[in-house]
Amino acid sequence: MAxxxxxxxxxxxxxxxxxxxxxxxxxxxxISGIGACYAQNDRDVAPYRDRIDRRGIATMRGYxxxxxxxxxxxxxxxxxxxxVLYMPEIEREFGIDFGKTFAPEIARLAPFVSDGLVEIxxxxxRTSLLGxxxxxxxxxxxxxxxxxxxxLKAASFFRKPL
Length: 162
Fold this sequence. Notes:
By secondary structure, the protein is an alpha+beta fold. It has helices at residues 2-5, 45-55, 67-82, 87-94, 98-101, 103-108, 110-114, 129-133, 135-138, 144-149; strands at residues 9-11, 14-16, 31-34, 37-41, 59-64, 84-86, 118-121, 124-127. It has 10 helices and 8 strands. It is 43% helix and 20% strand. The strands form 3 sheets. A 3-stranded antiparallel beta sheet has the order 3-4-5, with no helix packed on it. Residues 146-162 have low confidence and may be disordered.
């Protein structure tokens, strides 16, 4: 129901209907998401306790999202949560030309279109029912960090031998 109504959202904890909720992680290795920032507590008990004793918080690292990160997070979230992305919505929200900004990513989706996992037409990117099973194979193309760091190849998921 939430997916159909486009009220489903995703954060690093999973899926929710609470959009934009800040999450403060408590405990060893916990991750917090507050606004456009992420922070992670220390993963080991001794340094975790030491940080709390010294500073009152156990954060070992943090990251502030850039404008590009926020754009890409929104694109990925719409695909993962709604199964559909309306390019004009993104263009209005972020003041971009979607086709120009994401031309390489759209081109890399071609094998998924060929396999019937993704449909791209009239300013809409839509995952097919079968494609929704394979979100993790299609949505990373919009993450600049994932596509660069893992050297993802444009080969179709179904063309790889099992």
